[in-house]
Amino acid sequence: MDVVHTSIKDLKGSVDIDSVPGKGTMISLTLPMSLVTEHALLIKVGKERFALPTSYLSQALASDAGKFKKVGNEISFHMEKNAYPVITLAELLHMPNVQPVTLTDERSLVLVEEEGKTTAVIVDALLDSRDLVSKTMGRYVQNVKGIAGASILGDGSVVALLDLPSLLRSPAKSISLSMSSSAGAEAADDIGIPHIMIVDDSLSVRKSLSQLVEDQGYETLLAKDGLEAIEMMGKTRPNVMLVDMEMPRMNGIELTAHVRANAATNDIPICMITSRTTEKHRTLAKDAGVSEYLTKPYQETDLLQFINASLKK
């Protein structure tokens, strides 16, 4: 149970155990509905990266695992006495400049089973496999065939998670799936690209808070004091700020007052996280313009509730 408890806690969930003597034990696992983790294969097609949930895949292969053969006008991939029809992912997505399959093709493949039929889908490169936090595409890109969701990578880029079985049943319409396109940028904002600024002079606190926030699919901006935060805000305006009270150079009260005095930033929700529990410090924070005041130790659920509620406004 220790392993289960640790895993569920990492996903911001909870484990409840209820025992009745002589009758048995009920174990309840609770996970946040907004958080879906997918193990996925990162691949590349042209200049674009996509994620393929491994639950849809039978195998990922290098081209030398078998041979391409041509029967009539059709090319198939032969491996271990099996022959699989071939299609490129670029074709399924109706991407421009599709490179046709040849008998000497050296690109990688993934095998996808759909309705009892296995198809070899060609991709330009297999990059990595990892667990990704998947989010829905939001109101800007709704019900796009073949897209199961999207995820934000460690470098801040957004990748679409593709539903290959759906694409094989009915290829996508000719649309741009580039997450660097204007539609993709709007979708990225909607699926969790909001920037959460964390301002604390403790490196360990910045790391733990950034991990908590990034696990929810948000991006983080990290500053060690108020002056560094102001400098960073000149380049990127955060959507929410999490601020310590006592810091060198410029403390949290001074930073909050500065943010509230600036017309470009005065509406940013600010949560102050501090070990100061007295009414005096609460009043100082309130007068400066702090939106929420949490004292250490605090419940992560309370902090996440503040962030999520602030982003909905």
Automatic annotation (TrEMBL):
Keyword Phosphoprotein appears in the UniProt entry = yes
Q: Which reaction does it catalyse?
A: ATP + protein L-histidine = ADP + protein N-phospho-L-histidine
Q: In the record, what terms sit under GO molecular function?
A: protein histidine kinase activity
Question: Which stretches make up the CheW-like domain?
Answer: 37-173
EC assignment: the record states 2.7.13.3
**Where in this protein does the record say 4-aspartylphosphate is found?**
D244
- Give the enzyme's main class according to its UniProt record, as a single word: transferase
Query: Could you name the domain of life of the organism this protein comes from?
Result: Bacteria
Question: Its gene?
Answer: frzE
CDD domains according to UniProt? REC
Q: Which PROSITE patterns match?
A: CHEW, RESPONSE_REGULATORY
Which SMART domains does the record cross-reference, listed alphabetically? CheW, REC
Choose any GO biological process term that the UniProt entry carries and state it.
phosphorelay signal transduction system
Protein name (Swiss-Prot/TrEMBL): histidine kinase
Organism equals: Candidatus Venteria ishoeyi
Q: Which UniProt keywords apply?
A: Phosphoprotein, Transferase
- Keyword Phosphoprotein in annotation: yes
Which ranges carry the Response regulatory domain? 195-311
